[in-house]
Amino acid sequence: MTDRLPHEKGFHVSWDQLHRDARALAWRLQGQGPDEGAWRAVVAITRGGMAPAMIVARELDIRVVDTISVKSYNHQTQAAPKIIKSPDMDVIGDGTGVLVIDDLVDTGKTIEAVRRHMPKAQIATVYAKPMGRPQVDTFITEVSQDTWIFFPWDMALQYVKPYRGTD
Ligand SMILES: O=P(O)(O)OC[C@H]1O[C@H](OP(=O)(O)OP(=O)(O)O)[C@H](O)[C@@H]1O
Ligand code: HPA
Ligand SMILES: [Mg+2]
């Protein structure tokens, strides 16, 4: 196990921002598939890849959507990645024409495991850190390695006290 704390910086992503960035990812992937530009399926890396994968599948009109589940983190601590649920390999095959989507690549360990499973798939993430960047084929925004990305599903709006209080 690797202790990944502390992260110097935080990058907070709102639902709006995630929607924009996932759409930008879809835009970048559009027309790049092997069948006259089309992709035949989307595989989301659960759980973080599910919202971006849904947005990409919607934008690119892909109706075949499956999941792969890789468990490697417990909060901010990383263990060896393990595939605990595989997509339907009769549909996915070696991954040709398949888009694999995740929210981010950090060390690249998760994607390394996924690529072994589907060597011909196109792997795309919305965000990327430098260490994992060589593992992905396409991404939208890079953040530094010492930044922890906070996703909207992990956050809640909170009251903030004004600078100049009355109490
Ligand atoms: O590049 P890596 O260092 O392997 O890290 C990236 C992975 O870590 C997070 O998932 P996590 O395993 O926390 O599971 P979750 O998506 O279910 O939250 C994130 O969603 C990526 O899938
Ligand atoms: O920066 C991160 N944010 C959320 N989950 C993660 N899993 C690995 N790195 C991160
Ligand atoms: Mg994940």
From TrEMBL:
Catalytic activities: GMP + diphosphate = guanine + 5-phospho-alpha-D-ribose 1-diphosphate; XMP + diphosphate = xanthine + 5-phospho-alpha-D-ribose 1-diphosphate; IMP + diphosphate = hypoxanthine + 5-phospho-alpha-D-ribose 1-diphosphate
Gene: gpt
Species: Thetidibacter halocola
Binding annotation for GMP: 106-110, 148-149
Keyword GTP-binding set for record: no
Domain Phosphoribosyltransferase: 14-159
UniProt subunit comment: Homotetramer.
Pathway(s) where this gene product acts: Purine metabolism; XMP biosynthesis via salvage pathway; XMP from xanthine: step 1/1; Purine metabolism; GMP biosynthesis via salvage pathway; GMP from guanine: step 1/1
Name of the molecule in the record: Xanthine-guanine phosphoribosyltransferase
Coiled coil ranges: none
Family that this chain belongs to: Belongs to the purine/pyrimidine phosphoribosyltransferase family. XGPT subfamily.
SUPFAM superfamilies in the record: PRTase-like
